[in-house]
TrEMBL record:
Belongs to the GARS family. Its cofactor is Mn(2+); Mg(2+). GO terms for molecular function: ATP binding; metal ion binding; phosphoribosylamine-glycine ligase activity. Residues 109-311 form the ATP-grasp domain. It comes from Pannus brasiliensis CCIBt3594. It comes from the Bacteria. This is Phosphoribosylamine--glycine ligase. Pathway: Purine metabolism; IMP biosynthesis via de novo pathway; N(1)-(5-phospho-D-ribosyl)glycinamide from 5-phospho-alpha-D-ribose 1-diphosphate: step 2/2.
Amino acid sequence: MKIIVIGNGGREHALAWKLLQSNEVKHVYCIPGNGGTALLANCENISLSIEDFEGIARFALENQVDLVVVGPEYPLSLGITDALICQGISVFGPTKEGASIESSKSWAKELMIEAGVPTAASGTFTDADSARAYVLEKGAPIVVKADGLAAGKGVIVAETVEIALEGIDDLFNSGYTKVVVEEFLAGEEVSILALTDGVTCRALVPAQDHKRIGEGDTGKNTGGMGVYAPAPIATADILRKVDAEILAPVVATLRKRGIDYRGVLYAGLMISPSGEPKVLEFNCRFGDPETQAVLPLLETPLAPLLLACARGELRAFPPLQWRSGSAVCVVAASAGYPDAYEKGKVITGIEECEAEGAIVFHAGTTLKHGDLLTDGGRVLGITALGETFSEAIDRVYRAVARVHFDGIYYRRDIGHRARER
């Protein structure tokens, strides 16, 4: 098999790394890839834009590619799957209409209501005055969300009415034409990445992301500063509820609407203190950095699994197999992230990090004249495995300490909830 992976982040490096472990896979092309994918054996970076659907289709046909795996939400929201399928190319990733589950919070809310999925009460607004009035009526804490793609950073959890009102103004002033304001749900978050062929759904092990930039879950929201899996908050009983009350009804409702959804259905959940799951949001792709912790635990070969989804054959696929133990991923970021940051800093210590038993997934990196340089806000995702969470946490931080670039920043408390349990 030959496979294209669309994207250039840590998620895409993890996907390419895992796909290459499948015996069937001879070569992976990353469009455009990063410094890490450039170093993978039997992997090649291709200098095409993720928006160049015509060029991607031509490359896939000329190179007899068997499957295209789309990493980021942006090309999915633009309709890359629709464009490639029209050329007879197999794609793992939903169509443009299916990707609305992430690209439009209001569309996703309507879908959840139709499916009877437990979620937060909310209102959708096309003008700031109406949204502000809703906040003044409901009070705080309350949540304000951009109705559009925001790279994981378009959510404001407002502890006061003043913060909520300021958030509404900021989103409308930033060009968003619609916002969703919803009730604050108390509890603990967990991410469930499920694979579906539009009929059957298979959930991967649950993960817990750390969105805030600061230790103790403080400061600004980011794309994710670290993650661990499996998340113990998601008990077997909770996972059964998620399958029966959330994933299955959503897939069925998508099908009822005539949407052939083949890809990842990523449910961001809040688990209440009483153990009841409610949906915070849905995403239409693999999580980042969740993928960097979940895939190292997966023993089932990834390539035939994703191909079964793309071909509508997931029901006949054998049960997924998982290795025992835990995985913890710590993100090393550039100074200043999630705000302005510099690029072009030399990265050292990767080999020493890997010698500690870690897997290094590149996110914002590039190779220039033999040097590995920083090229993004989140630079590396460093993952370690262990038979226990404590073992994985200790191993990953020994590994992270080996890496250096000017301004390196990482949280030192990733996995703190799991360790406390």
